[in-house]
Write a structure and sequence with these properties.
Layout lengths: L2 E11 L20 E6 L4 E10 L4 E6 L1 E5 L1 E6 L5 E6 L2 E13 L6 E14 L9 E13 L2 E12 L15 E12 L11 E10 L7 E7 L2 E9 L3 E10 L4 E6 L1 E13 L2 E2 L3 E17 L6 E11 L8 E13 L2 E12 L12 E10 L1
Antiparallel strand pairs: 1-3, 1-12, 2-6, 3-4, 3-5, 4-8, 5-8, 6-7, 8-9, 9-10, 10-11, 11-12, 13-16, 13-24, 14-15, 15-18, 16-17, 17-20, 18-19, 18-20, 20-21, 21-22, 22-23, 23-24
Length: 367
Amino acid sequence: MYFWSLGPEFVLRLGRRRKYYDAFQPYEPPGVGVTRLYSESRDYLVGPMLEWRFSPHWSVEADGIYRKLHLTEAFVEPNGLLNSVSPSPVITWEFPVLAKYRFNLPRLKPFAEAGPSFRTAGNLNGANPSHLGVTGGLGVEFHAAGLAFAPAVRYTRWATDTGSPFITARSKEDQIELLIGVSRASSVNVHLFGRHVAIGAVLGTSLNERTPAQSFSYLASNGPVTIMSTPDRSFSAGPALEFLLPRRFSVEADAIYVPLRSTTIATVNGIQSGGFGSGITTWEFPVLAKYTFRAGTIAPFAEAGPSFRLPTTGLSTHGFTAGLGAQVPVKVLKFQPAVRYTRWAQNAFGAPIARPDQVEVMVGFLL
């Protein structure tokens, strides 16, 4: 039985009541006469949900959740009192894409869910919330008045925010929330996409560094100074859509979140300072023609096609991708591990340094 479940999702965040505690960590440098960044109120979440149930037990849910982070900026007087308190809210949208498994009991249907979460932010006010996380949750579904109610507790682990700790507020990486989903299932008992389209997600990491290490030195009044920047290992993830064609051909289109991160350490007269992270966010969109060599438990395939990238501070916006992999069916899922090579066009002058050649290990999870 295949059907869509569409409805709003109302969310209330759970946590201890503490005056200066919310999505943002308190930030207060040592000393007096400084600026403090903190959160002093809870936030509410609300947004639409879309769920595709493809068996009595399994489904995939995608949400678009609006959330305002209540960042506040204030000046700390020498006596410790706050002055010039200025609310500086940060607007975010969260997009969890979760695989769900229901335990079918007579009246209640407990469920477990897990998957990647994506986040966009605006009105930053000196903050830079990370864009990628992993979410897991437990809940129970029951029906009343023709509606499905699904309260759940979710835990999300967000990636660390990028940017110098001296100029930006840091959002808390660990978030626990109570969500109440309200939906009404479609009465259409069909596979909406038909049997020739598979949806899912891709996860991966780069085998070579996305950005090269950089180092430069100069002589200052207090001694020699060396600035060294080393790339950080990062993961990529995003939704995937595959169109199945005759004679073992198919076309796959992905939207992949790819962070370019590095850690910078300054050495002054032989003494190292604490390193701080920096980076930029990119989105890549490969569109790949695929050929599966044979059907069976393990089916090798080859793929190739153009890749596109959202314009980001002078980085090239197009390239070419090719890969080799294999498809392994496990019950209702198709696992597709693959090694991909991408050659990007030349970046504009003055753009962030990024390697034109990328070799990645990607794993697709398709339904």
